[in-house]
Amino acid sequence: MSNITMRELKEDIRTGLKTKELVLSMGPQHPSTHGVLRLVLELDGETVVKCTPYVGYLHRGTEKLCEHRTYLNALPLSDRLDYIVSMANNVGYVLAVERLFGIEAPPRAKYIRTIVSEMARLSGHLLWIATHALDIGAMTVFLYSFREREWLLDLFEHLCGARLTTSYPRIGGVRNDVTEEFLDSLYEFTEEFPRRIEEYETLIDQNRIWLQRTKGIGVISAEEAINWGLTGPVLRGSGVPYDVRKFAPYDAYPWVDFEVPVGKNGDVYDRYKVRMQEMRQSNRIIKQCIERMPKGPVMAPDAPKFTLPPKEKVMSEMESLIHQFVLITKGPIAAPEGEIYSAIEAPKGELGFYIVSDGTGRPYRLRLRSPSFVHASVLPRLCEGHLVADVIANIGTIDIVLGECDR
Amino acid sequence: MLAFINEPAVLSIILAVVKSIILVSVAMFHVAYATYFERKAIGHMQVRMGPMRVGPHGILQPVADMIKLFFKEDIIPEKADRTVFYFAPVISFVAAISSLSVIPFYKDWYVANINIGLLFILAMSSLGAYGIVMAGWASNSKYAFLGGLRSSAQVLSYEIAMGLSLVGVMIMAGSLNLREIVEAQNKLPYGMFAIPQILGLFVFLVAAFAETNRAPFDLPEAESELVAGYFAEYSGFRFALFYAGEYIAMIVMASLLTACYFGGWTLPPFILKALPWLGLVPGVVWFVLKVYFFIFFYYWIRATLPRYRYDQLMAIGWKVLIPLSLLNIFITGTLRILKVF
After folding, report:
1. Under an 8 A CB cutoff, do A147 and B46 touch?
2. Peptide bond into B306 cis (omega under 30)
3. What are the domain boundaries of chain A?
4. What are the DSSP E strand ranges found in A306-348?
5. pTM reported for the whole predicted model
6. A12-16, A282-286, B111-115: which range is least confident on average?
7. Which listed CATH number (3.30.230.10, 1.10.645.10, 2.40.50.140, 3.40.50.300) goes with A53-302+334-406?
């Protein structure tokens, strides 16, 4: 570039011209690195010779913070992991704690949690298709899918008062029961949504430019994908039918019918197809849950030591008030000692919580296995040897959220 | 004292200046409202409203934008090559707007009726690429640099296809003068070259998208890859010059499309025969309507298609468009020798 000094120029002339890779720092402020991912690209022309991802720009020390909070108080921190699908993170966290304590949520609560996890999956995948298509240049899909995401967020607001940072599930159930209007509106959504997916597909599915930009890009074989530790749609795009919902069912997943869509070639296009199919399956799950949901309580009644008593009782009974006070300030005293790993199928992949308990009301150590972090590590493998434009397609296809990656 | 005004040479200069002023002001007005119309049209395609705040339905949005751009600080990066940085947007803008001078909007509505009108426009549009390359170089920013490189490669390869596609028109009209090209079309029963030159039209249309850096060939300014491409470091009025240059280039290409393939200001004779009262409408209306349609077409494509990748773009240019335009020249030339038209 123009700031080559005269001395360097003379040196070049004397020793003969040498070429050097152009080092391009992409991010942390860049429109399509999906948050604050930073990639240092070494370019030979437009070809990426080396790609190094740098993470940590959104590090907030979630794991450490959890060590200083009671099990109950740590719940809102899980909202901030993958902030696009906070409901799924909440469910993952409460499940892990429930497994540690050995509590079982009542069936109605399980159905409700399944519904909200799948709604979270839909809203996550809708955001993914919106931004992925926008990155590749198909800007119209963006607002079409945001229209439906808005519907889901409104439903979340109706359910728990928050659109993004929901903190709705509780250890031993959910905070409050769903209303009839909520279920009606959600049912209407499930009736309408398959048509909307078709609408997005009309925009890009058969588009020749879309096919050229996605087919054969970012190919990763099934074996390699497993070796890299990929999970979720990224792994399934390579043809491995691994899904935590099927392999270690939780909540109401064993009671509903759904398929696990898999791809074949493991390229950007197959992962796109897998996610589009997953949205249809999620829709199916939600519909079944609404139809089959039993009546009953939404909080585990037999565990007053671990779960918050209902608000009415706090207002009227001394016992409950004491429980509430103790739980909030000290946490459940009788947390069993031990270690537990519990995972859910979050929209991005396997979201694992590894809790080490030393018998106090706070976790001794809480380790998060976040899919985004693992997936970010595969970026160099996908990008090297390809063009700059493919880097964008690859960031979109692994669908990372830096809140979860940096924690 | 003012007698020299009556000299024919002086008179023609004054006339040219007056014409230019009128043309530039009309063109700038169109640029301002082309941005508004683009945002509105794409907005409605994307289930949103587009600008709504300034004036009823956002009708004064371009005015607000213009005021904003005028008063913005003109930031020059510390390590930029200042002289080149200053001149790049000017070159880009001037090259675009001077192409407008040879376009015949109506029988005698042009600034200059030169015999090499078509060649002049092609020359000017390749000159515009210099502005982009210089901007990319002078900014001393890697994103801008990549944008400038992409643009130079793109303009070089698509210019060939575009020039070759117009050769068919030149053969049919037997002239490079845009006015004569329009008149030659009116002699045909269907009144436009779009039908016999369908292959050339296709090549020209695609190449025009690439020449003006519009989607799906907007690689030099690909937002998701290069942030803003070659004008990433520009702000304020210099940015506005690039922006205006791009829109004027778009209008020029749409006008060229109208003049060379769709009969310019004329209506096809068979329509006039069927509906003779349409002949009362001044021809400039048809010209402008045709241009508006093609500008709308640009927006339509932008809202529909994803972006090509750099190597794919090159492959289309060299492996598809150039062979196709050569084939078109061959066919047109053969038909011409056989005196089919």
Report:
1. no
2. no
3. 6-52, 53-302+334-406
4. 338-346
5. 0.85
6. A12-16
7. 1.10.645.10
Whether the Cβ atoms of residue A105 and residue A300 lie closer than 8 Å to each other: yes
pLDDT tens profile B192-246: 887 788 888 889 988 888 888 777 877 766 666 676 777 778 888 888 888 888 8
Handedness of CA A152, A34, A279, A297 (dihedral sign): negative
Closest Cβ opposite residue B140 in set A2, A207, A389: A2
Burial label, A6 (beta-carbon count in 10 A; 0-12, 13-18, 19+): exposed
Enumerate the residues of chain B whose CB falls inside 8 A of the CB of residue A207. Answer: 305-306
Q: How far is CA A178 from the centre of its chain?
A: 23
Question: Angle formed by the axes of helices B178-186 and B236-261, to 10°?
Answer: 40
- Cβ distance A136 to B307 less than 8 Å, yes or no, reads yes
Query: How far is A186 from A198, CA to CA, in rounded Å?
Result: 19
Q: Which amino acid is at B37?
A: F
> Would the CB atoms of B225 and A143 count as touching at under 8 Å?
no
Q: What is the distance between the alpha carbons of residues B251 and B93, in angstroms, rounded to a whole number?
A: 13
From A229, A251, A81, A278, select the one nearest A167 (Cα to Cα): A81
Q: Are B265 and B106 in contact (CB under 8 A)?
A: yes
Residue A398, both tokens: 């692994």
Say which residues have a Cβ less than 8 Å from residue A291's Cβ, sequence separation at least 6: none
Question: In this complex, is the C-beta atom of B111 within 8 Å of any C-beta atom belonging to chain A?
Answer: no
Measured distance CA(B68)–CA(B229) in Å, rounded: 22
ipTM of the complex: 0.80
Q: Which residue of B has its CA nearest to A207?
A: B305
Query: pLDDT digits over B153-206, tens only?
Result: 888 888 888 888 888 888 888 888 888 888 888 787 777 887 788 888 889 988
Task: Decide: A84 and A308 in contact? Cβ < 8 Å.
Answer: no
